[in-house]
Amino acid sequence: MGIAGAAWATVISLAITSVIMLNWLLFKRDTYVSFKFSDFKFDKSIIKDIFRVGLPASVSQLSMSITMLIMNIIIVMVSSTDGVAIYSTGWRVASMAVLPTMGVATALISVSGAAFGANSFDKLKSSHIYAIKIGLIIEVVIAILTFIFAPQIAAVFTQSESAVHIAPGLIIFLRTITIFYPAISFGMLSSAVFQGMGKGINALIVTILRTAILGPLFAVLFAFNLNLGLIGVWWGVVAANIIGSVIAFSWARLYITRLTKTKIR
């Protein structure tokens, strides 16, 4: 079925897992939290809390997609469609590389939310640091492995005759972006803490700053102003993610420290 088969596989897999989840929540009710639709009552304050976190998170995802479009335009200007192929393929690898930290971030949202709701700001602070330590260790290991095995990883994505010529450029990309892998835990997990505290706007600001502002800005600066060409775009991505992560971490730490001192939300 070709490409259509891949689409059908995606739809069917989502449908199956949704049925399993609905069975757990509505029929077996053997999860920690269960509910009945008959118990639902409209509450504007709850709806507002959901949108306060969910809407900025949705806009954050949208900003990443827009950033990809902008980066593609910059890459075409400095290189060619081969550069776009390298970027899109390499970014898939980067997305997989940060998946473990995304898992830690998902857990941290719940933990930090519970600590914040209980006014246990010391626990909020310690959970933030502990999660970053875990994420940092994981990403350092992944960065080292990616740097070492970049040729083998590139070979997996360039097996076709039409793609084999981008392999050298893809290896350079993979090895360059490994530099920001350890830093991503500081930014991603700090954003998770903001979401857990219900400060979705803070997390959105950090994401937009890192992706939609610093990313294209440094890519243009390094590629054109410093005449580094396509490699300059990769270094721009690295610089944007590192600086953005540092800003997110510093902001989160200052916010938590203020909470700890004043005991107010």
Outline the structure in words:
The chain is globular. It contains 10 helices and no strands. It is an all-alpha fold. It has 2 domains: 1-40, no CATH class; 44-262, no CATH class.
Note the topology.
Elements: H1 2-28, H2 44-78, H3 81-97, H4 99-117, H5 121-148, H6 150-157, H7 167-177, H8 181-196, H9 200-225, H10 229-262
Helix pairs in contact: 2-9, 3-7, 4-5, 4-8, 5-8, 5-10, 6-7, 7-10, 8-9, 8-10, 9-10
Described by the principal axes of the CA atoms, the overall outline is: globular
- SSE order, one letter for each helix or strand: HHHHHHHHHH
For the record, the count of structural domains works out to 2
Largest sheet: none
What is the mean predicted local confidence, pLDDT? 91
Strand fraction band?
under 5%
State the separation between the terminal residues, measured CA to CA.
55 Å
The portion of residues assigned to helices is over 70%
List the defining traits of the structure above.
single chain, 265 residues, mainly alpha, 2 domains, 10 helices, 83% helix
In short:
The protein has 265 residues and is an all-alpha fold.
